[in-house]
Amino acid sequence: MKYKIMKILNVLILVVTVFGINGCKKFLDRKPLNASLEDLNQGGLEGQAFGLYSAFTDRNSAYHGFNSIPWFAMHSFRDDDAMKGSSPADGADWGVIFDGFQYDKAHWSSSIYWDQKYNLIAKANTLLQTADSLGLADPASEINVAEARFFRAFTYFDLVRVYGEVPKVDFRIYNANDSKIPKSTVTEVYALIDDDLNFAISNLPPNWNNSAGNDAYPGRLTRYTAMALLAKAKLYRQDYGGCLGLCEQIIGSGQYGLLTDYVTNFLVAGENSKESLLEVQANNEKSAVASTGYEYGVEQGVRGSGTWDLGWGWNTPTDNLANAYAAGDKRRAATILFSGQDDGYGKTVPDYPTIPRLYWNKKVYPEPTMQTATGRLQNKWINHSLIRYSDVLLMAAEAANEVGGSGNNSNATTWVNMIRNRAGLGSITYVSQTQMRDAVKQERRFEFAMEGERFFDLVRWNDAMTVLGSLGYNSDCKKYYPLPQAAIDFAGGILVQNPCY
After folding, report:
1. In three state form, how does the secondary structure of 139-188 look?
2. How far is it, in rounded angstroms, from Cα 25 to Cα 218?
3. Backbone angles phi, psi at 459, to 5 degrees
4. Is the pTM of this model over 0.70?
5. Which side of the chain, N or C, has fewer Cβ within a 10 Å radius?
6. Residue 320 belongs to what domain range?
7. Secondary structure (H, E, C), 217-278
8. 372 domain-assigned
9. Do 316 and 444 sit in the same domain of this protein?
């Protein structure tokens, strides 16, 4: 991102400060977004829609459910590639609960994760009710409705993966008691996700290019973002044909491609690139106020002192991951920062145990040029990439291999080799469905290491017991986290706890 001073607008500071956009004005800075419901007319939902993006990227909450420690815990600590990190004594209970699969239904991490997911769902439902009550059906409003439905679907996809059956709140909440409803089945939740994403696909634009061919709103949702999420939702239910069809549309659009170097995905130069379908937008504002900026990188930064005080040190790689890469795989150096070794920029990382871990997440390591530009040691400017084109290619390869047939087998091989070749690995040839299935699993592991995909992949492949059993994953119950006890208590018997808890 290029450094620039943000304009001060007459809107909520929360809305204004969260969107750092690569090389152009932050799209929330384009117009005042303080319309009240009484001011809404055709297209007037835009302020509410932009508010959804701000809730999605809220850096004002230190423990945000989409990109902070509770998110790392649910999405990353529970796999074999990542661990709690930090110093052993710091948040030791998190390591027991998530690394060791001794789930705690009363731990506040789950309550934060749950509450903030449902907060975003409530905001989306409010926009949808507003559009319906005012009869807003013009193209601009339909786009805003599609944005709300995407965010609702995205949030429910996280909830259904983490908890299984959850309350399906698809209406506006006017008072707290409205939310006291029983759980819906997994099938019912996925039906809502499908419906929301199909609407988004039909109503979001393919891109946000202006007349000059430049992206006027980097980071804003597109039709293909919704397609990619729907493809993943179908893959999780083994709807391989549906997943493949959606991925082929994205591939055939010609709008996306792999960056030449894997590491660029995690540098400022790679933000909102041709490989990006969905990423949380950080704020690169230069400011003397320590609280400004985005905490995603800070919470994972090297836990040291002086010039090595780069963050809190959570979400660190394991020995298992460090030793698992094939020789020559470029993704290893792009993913793992080694204590006591060169950082890639000519500085030597302090030795362990001077700093408390052997490895750190290199994907959030601060670039020295950005440290200078922002006046910060800690990485408060990095975007959080959630869906990349490489994910689309590997979903397509997995689905094509499962559907089968000579053409699909050939395509699956091609797509896997695109990923392998960029990583510096040689091409493979198709031998069998089992061999290609294993190849996809391997590539997904290393392509998305430390990014919150691995645990859910292991669960949906039915590999979790085998891979994670020695870590404490000793029952199929472990695939779902118990519902927060606070939510159970609030519902007064209407909301029933997950089995085994």
Report:
1. HHHHHHHHHHHHHHHHHHHHHHHHHCCECCCCCCCCCHHHHCCCCECHHH
2. 9
3. -65, -45
4. yes
5. C
6. 301-367
7. CCCCCCHHHHHHHHHHHHHHCCCHHHHHHHHHHHHHCCCCCCCCCHHHHHCHHHCCCCCEEE
8. no
9. no
Nearest to 73 by CA among 112, 117, 106, 120: 112
pLDDT values of the chain reduced to their tens digit, one per residue, 501 residues: 333 322 222 232 233 233 333 333 333 333 333 334 444 444 569 999 999 998 887 655 556 789 999 999 999 999 999 999 999 999 999 999 999 999 999 999 999 999 999 999 999 999 999 999 999 999 999 999 999 999 999 999 999 999 999 999 999 999 999 999 999 999 999 999 999 999 999 999 999 999 999 999 999 999 999 999 999 999 999 999 999 999 999 999 999 999 999 999 999 999 999 999 999 998 766 554 555 568 899 999 999 999 999 999 999 999 999 999 999 999 999 999 999 999 999 999 999 999 999 999 999 999 999 999 988 999 999 999 999 999 999 999 999 999 999 999 999 999 999 999 999 999 999 999 999 999 999 999 999 999 999 999 999 999 999 999 999 999 999 999 999 999 999 999 999 999 999
DSSP assignment letter at 314: E
Does residue 463 contact residue 79 with C-beta atoms inside 8 Å? no
Say if CB 315 and CB 361 are below 8 A apart.
Answer: yes
Q: How many domains does the chain have?
A: 2
Cα separation, 400 vs 303, in Å, equals 43
Identify whether residues 194 and 324 lie together within a single domain.
no
Q: Dihedrals φ, ψ of 143, to 5°? A: -65, -45
Do 184 and 317 reside in the same domain of the chain? no
Give the pair of three-digit tokens for residue 29.
């800075």
